[in-house]
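INTERNAL AUDIT FORM
Audit reference: QA-55
Scope: verify that the stored structure record matches its stored sequence.
Auditor: D.O.
Record contents follow.
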Amino acid sequence: MKKLIFLPLLILCSLNSAGQISDSLGWKGTPVIQLNSFTDPGSWHPNSSAGDNCYVSTDLSDTTSICLHWKFNPGSGHRYAQMYFIFDVPVSMYGDDIFGFDIKGRNLNDNCTHNLDIQLKLESLTSSANASFSWHNLARIERWCNSISALKKQFRQNSIDWNNIRVVSLEIDSDSDFSSADSGIVCFRGLKCDNTTGWERQSGFSALNNSSSDLTKIKKAALDSITGRQSASGLLYTWREDGSSWLYGQGLALKVLSLEGWGTSDPDSAVYQNAARKLAAFLACNQNNMGFWPRAWRSATGQIIVNLEGDGSVWLGDFPWAITGLANYYKKSRDTSVLASINKARRFLTDSLITQNGRLFTLQKTVQNTYIKKEVTSVEAYNAVILGLLELNDTARAVSLAKYIDSATWDSSMKYWNESIGNPRAVLFANTWFSQLIRNNKCISDAIDPELTKSAAALTFAGRVLYTEGPGQPAGFDGIGPVATWLEGTFSYISAGGQASQSVFNSLIDYISPGYAVPHYNDVISCDIGGIWAVKWISLDGTSWLWYAASKNSPFHVTNEPNVKFPVLVPETDESRYLIYPNPSSSKLIIETPFDSQEINFTLFDFMGNRMLTKMSSSSKTEFDVSGLKPGTYIVRIVSGNKTKILTVIRN
């Protein structure tokens, strides 16, 4: 079959007169229960756990919905309040593979103390033959949340006969202990189902058609926002509100700064170069000796605040982004001081964590402070690792990983990538990242998707299932919800060329203008609802993805620089013997080296290359007075004979 080199660009929808995106995103489905029966309280049977009570009513403000009023009295154990509908004649849902509804709730007495989950249950001939799915804490969403859905293969299924569905129930339940009575109301509308194999899929990829001047202005504003978030340590604030810097965003933004700092005509390119140098130096000098990085630091001081995942593992969805950022920095700057760090990270990844058949593992710390291997199943993590390998020209391993995770997670019927091996949930990054990885790297597309049909189909699926209008503006996509609009993920969808990208982009740009600093979500949700963390804090990650979208670029486009290779460096057996402390420092700085009884030259530079302090010593240990230096990040160069070592120090 002839390969498609260029695919047609599709602009498939536009903003309507009210400013909302038209109907080509999301999904409609068919009613599970006809509207006149669905909205009739007499059609539903209320039922609750012992000692509790509930009843059903109409919603006077919305005649298309039905409401369940519930009250849980003091007590412990599993609590529930449900309303169930019995079909006069059994119905078949055999051909349906997605179910959903609109929902809003209100908790009258509680303040996020108890879990208030929502369950949809379908029963066939007996109550023991059923299928059910629960959404965490969804009864708390105090506005209409549209098209909350789950795939049939996500349901817990127990001997159900999908050709003979007799009962449908909607339930609120909790396993929390109630010291006092709690009550509320939850309303539903549009209970629906559909067969996703019948959904029309995009046959190409959308592209932004904004004028170049508009996109240039947006790119510039995003860059200014990124550089404006740099602290004295060199780290970029992921969240100014809590003063933290998270690894994924540092690598993502370092690639942006490297691409803009070198080889562009921007008059501020020197500013971007300087920001990239500071960040690259921090990453190169704040790496675990095993080769990985902590997940998060205090931005101002560089103090580690999150080292490993909650289960003690190195999260490979974040770790490879530091490789990608440093690799791009080296390709553009030719700064060899970061090569040792890149090589150490590469060794950590490739020495034992990737098998010949493309399976990926990580390390997990045990209570005995030893590390064991743990298999990685996340598509998002695989994509991040594959990109890092491609940036290092390790094509064979990258292709092997891509082929394995594609074969393990691709749903050939519904045409999307599962969230992970064994978890069929549809999430945004698994599909937008993999689509970008394939489109931007011929070695990957040749191996698993030469016609790019899988990539286009997966984007359509993610767009339909995860489209949301959140609390109203802007319309876009949630990562796992759809509860509210996640701007970072939505820009990843646009960068991937998902259908209606232009309309979605317009919606988001209107929302974040005029500063083009990107909020995390368009809503604030105080309780953990549906597994999302929604705040309106300005996001480094989202702002970086805005730059990629406005650039008509993708972080999954590998940077190729002529005559740039990554040499396999000899491991430094005396690495742990280089010590620099306290770091950060406010006055006294002590440096220890593995050298002994020979002339050693210590020189301290600022990030503009200006020599600040120098000292000659015949001792392996020396001391600097840095109290007279301004706060910021500095470079220490140590030279002994033909050996040179570069260290970074932060002056508080």
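Auditor finding: record pair retrieved intact. The CA atoms of residues 355 and 361 lie 8 Å apart.
Action required: none
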